[in-house]
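Project standup — Tuesday

K.O.: blocked on the structure for the chain from last sprint. Re-posting the sequence here as requested.
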Amino acid sequence: MDQEVYEILGITDNEHFRKSELVKSLGIYGRNGIIDSGELYIEGDLKMTKIVSFINLKGGVGKTTVTVNIASILAQKYGYKVLVVDLDPQTNATVSLISQEHWQERSRAKQTLYDMFYDLLNNEKNFNINSAILKNVSDIDNLALLPSSLDLVQIQDNIPEISNKEYINFVDVLANQLERVKAQYDYILIDCPPNLGAITLNGINISDYYIIPTVPDILSKIGINLILNRIDQFVEKKHSCNIKLAGLIFTKVDARTNLHASTKRELRDTEELEALVFENEMPTRISIAEAPVDSRPHVNSSTARSKSDYRATHQLIVDITDEFIEKIEAMEE
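H.V.: unblocked you, prediction finished:
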């Protein structure tokens, strides 16, 4: 770490120090550091928590698949501390990482994202961010989950009833909660709903970057510009939001179709996107599609492992994750 940074924080290279409010507010966490009883031990370079939203306005494009599988490789292969935030009322990311029974138990305990928003709207205090976050999900060390709920749809339906002032406060709900814990993670990956409503804007508001997973077809291509324009409009109004587009990942790619091939070429040749389109792609594969049967990501799903395409598909996911890391780090420079 740069000596100037140490001097600003008032610490030396190997000094053990208690997290100050400054460090917590900056969201700094050592990649090799260990948080224990409020202590942060400096053993390597200090890192800023990277918060990335995955979004597409079209459903069924493999958004959740990309989010969950990148998160699992970051944690399992590279040892990053990763939190998956499931903002989508469809709860696909949640049930891809924990069992239906576990999810229902968290719902009964009022420790889902629905309860976070419900408490604000109804002046209640059931939700606790530390209790709600589930650690080491899918038996993967360093992988955590903030679960969703089908009831989030009700919250979205109630948004038109609140005032403009309340709406502005509402898009900060997730940010206010994650501020308490984000220093514990290297990456926070947010699986956003397929819309740009208030729930989604909670994710956009706190994110440093966003990724667009997209099927290379006509309808998805049309939606990309809509996403870019809508997020730009939000950033103009919410000056504290500094989110940037970090990449576009092709998903459910079918190499047999001319449409997919031509759409990929067109997007790769688009001036504003050519540097952002991932070289690696997520094709349609049986092992990817069936992994959620075990409520686990592809890397440790027994169902996925039983498929003949498992090894090749696993390497594709690793390659996508490697490129994800490279693109995020390049944006940080």
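K.O.: great, moving the ticket to review. The first helix runs from residue 3 to 9. Residues 287 and 304 are 4 Å apart (CA to CA).
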